[in-house]
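Encode chain A's predicted structure.
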Amino acid sequence: MIIVLMGVTGSGKTTIGKQLAAELGWKYYDADDFHSPANIEKMRRGVALDDADRQPWLETLRNLIRDCVDRNKNCILACSALKKSYRDYLLLSDEVHLVYLKGDYDLIQQRLNDRSDHYMNPKLLRSQFEILEEPQGRLVVDVSLPVAEIVKTIREQLGL
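Encoded structure for chain A:
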């Protein structure tokens, strides 16, 4: 099984992904680690990525997911996957499950204001909410809950 944790920057994808992976003994991947240096620099400067910027990154992530599916390896992937087209591209098998980490703008903005260890410019949050196409028919978890409760909910809902 591959679990893709999606949501805007600051929604807790990394924190929840690492905790979930640790509890399950699965490999954890952060999609941020697969961005090109040019994309990272754009985001650091507060310039939103466009679809052309994201395409090579999405191809790399799709290949990672395909490899995990082909090798029957369980993993957690933290990935913004804000648009339906991105998710459709990544959800290439019934083995891939999407979890939407949903939070309101004010909560996420506060988290970003408190964060200093990430290249993502907090000014980009508004653009992320603007392009976000909320998934339908997928597991949605409220990120205002404690991390342990979020992880527990994901495990229960996915039968883990």
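The longest strand covers residues 96-102.
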